[in-house]
Amino acid sequence: MKLRNRHLLLLWMLVCSGTTEAIEPISTSIAVGVAAALTGFLATHQNIFCYIRECCRPEWISFNRTGLQTDLENKLFGQHIASRIILKAVNGFMSNDNPKKPLVLSLHGWTGTGKNFVSKLIAENIYKEGMDSSFVHVFTSTLHFPHSSQNATYKSQLQQWIKGNVSNCERSMFIFDEMDKMHPGLIDSIKPYLDYYDKLDGVSYRKSMFIFLSNAGGESIIETALNFWIAGRDREEIELKDLEKALSLSVFNNDKSGFFHTSLIDKHLVDFFVPFLPLEQKHVEQCVMAEMKARELEPDRDVAEKVAGDLHYFPKSDRAFSTKGCKAIQSKLDYYL
Ligand SMILES: Nc1ncnc2c1ncn2[C@@H]1O[C@H](COP(=O)(O)OP(=O)(O)OP(=O)(O)O)[C@@H](O)[C@H]1O
Ligand SMILES: *[C@@H]1O[C@H](CO)[C@@H](O)[C@H](O)[C@H]1NC(C)=O
Ligand SMILES: *[C@@H]1O[C@H](CO)[C@@H](O)[C@H](O)[C@H]1NC(C)=O
Ligand SMILES: *[C@@H]1O[C@H](CO)[C@@H](O)[C@H](O)[C@H]1NC(C)=O
Ligand SMILES: [Mg+2]
């Protein structure tokens, strides 16, 4: 087969070059050499293609554990529990060559506390192209699936997308934003992909990752955080077990939460529930400082304090937690500069 290719190539070269010189013995051997090189080139054209364009290969997809760890330590503020769970979960999953099921994380917490931000950090430490990778897919309920009357259409569309994308690349990542606003039927439709199946219709989903983002349970997390605050206890003393019960109760028993209607939870398809704590003023200040650095401005603590101090906090008397977390600091910063 290889030899035939080589002959075909030689013929092609002769035709293309339009010379008869190559017929002479010496030229012929040179031509054969060139042709051999070309054959090699064609055989590795896939490699060259993947050199310039993203492919589903380790050059483009490989987990950087230290990268994720340093990012979580240096860039994510005030989320000691989430940070710990995520590092363990992602590290365990990515270093397992034969996972039994896809990794399913469910991130919960008040607005502006870093759920999308963490998803981005995870993507950046797995995919060279980060969130721009063609293997990272973000679905936002209100954007992609806005009309509940069309749930049947969405359902088949979403299943096709997941199947098509995982067939292309088993290391695919799916982020479902505003999961609490997603139609329960639609959540049910992705359930098979999250389960312990070797293969479904010949496709294995076991190496893909699903991340659900929602505000579900946010209030109960706040309640716990506030109790610690009022008792004068250190935020870092809050442990997962302090939040777990309240979180699962509120996620289960909330009629407004899509999770309630599904068996995602009782079938244990979610591997980790990750709580995000409400942010204090000092964390908002850190966010402002980071934003100044990102804009290549000289970080200025006075400005950071002013920006953070200007936001709303609750409860009004204590000003414990930021109402919008670290959201909306960008425009505030513009105002102060
Ligand atoms: N804990 C945090 N550490 C560092 N930066 C943060 C944190 N939380 C939020 N930010 C900053 O604020 C921006 C908005 O946060 P993000 O979009 O992650 O919030 P969210 O939790 O997804 O909120 P929502 O529930 O409203 O979608 C981020 O892009 C990031 O710059
Ligand atoms: C992993 O991340 C660290 C810290 O960000 C970085 O220094 C290192 O170069 C990265 N490694 C790879 C292989 O990209
Ligand atoms: C779509 O939603 C309606 C009501 O909201 C429900 O009766 C129907 O079963 C759903 N269809 C699918 C395919 O989930
Ligand atoms: C992959 O998902 C995207 C949505 O993120 C969709 O547009 C695309 O058609 C899917 N690809 C395949 C092959 O199904
Ligand atoms: Mg978000």
TrEMBL record:
InterPro entries: ClpA/B, P-loop_NTPase, TOR1A_C, Torsin, Torsin_1/2
GO process terms (BP): nuclear membrane organization; protein localization to nucleus
GO cellular component terms given for this protein: endoplasmic reticulum lumen; nuclear envelope
Localization per record: Endoplasmic reticulum lumen
Listed GO MF terms: ATP binding; ATP hydrolysis activity; kinesin binding
Residues annotated for ATP binding in this entry: G109, W110, T111, G112, T113, G114, K115, N116
Record keywords: ATP-binding, Endoplasmic reticulum, Glycoprotein, Nucleotide-binding, Signal
Superkingdom of the source species: Eukaryota
Signal peptide (from-to): 1-22
Domain Torsin-1A C-terminal positions: 279-336
Principal location class: endoplasmic reticulum
Protein family (similarity comment): Belongs to the ClpA/ClpB family. Torsin subfamily.
The protein, known as: Torsin
